[in-house]
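During the no-cost extension, the postdoctoral fellow (Dr. R.K.) reprocessed legacy sequence entries with the updated structure-token encoder. One reprocessed record is reproduced below for audit purposes.
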Amino acid sequence: MTQVCLLTGRPGTGKTSLIRQVLAGSKVKAGGFYTEEIRSEGIRQGFRLVTLDGQTAILAHVDIRSPHRVSKYGVDIASLEWVGVSALLRATKESSLIVVDEIGKMELFSDNFCKTVFQIINGSKRVLGTIMLNSNPWADEIKRHPRVSLITVTRDNHQQVLGELYHWLETTEEAKN
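Re-encoded structure tokens follow.
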């Protein structure tokens, strides 16, 4: 059974929602982080990192001035590394499942993030995460990694993927015992 399960798909297909649902319905000890939109009056202003142990940080925002930009958002690499990468490193020591949501354009600005993701994918822990759909040399290498199972999420297969994720968690937990 694959140790690393990464969800990919177009924005808005529910990848992060699937991860949050499967974590809520599972007893597995998980660590890491997910991302969520920051909205004001219905308009997306940026993205926030939320660790599974409750820390938060602004990953990107329209008001951040940074040399690292994706579309209209300035990316705060220091916050990604201070909160996100730290959460991943803690998870490698304390959890049986590492959550990385997401491996995307913003996160790939950080060499430290890339190095950490590569280490956890090659490590002994299970990894559940999301990865950008669009082609990127580094992300494509991760997608082709022999330890990675890639699942494409669409609006039509949300429930099917949820079932697959529960099965994956149960099967990998049984194999571990």
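The beta strands are 4-8, 30-40, 43-51, 56-61, 69-70, 73-75, 97-103, 126-131, 148-152. The chain has five helices and nine strands. The remaining legacy entries will be reprocessed before the final report is submitted.
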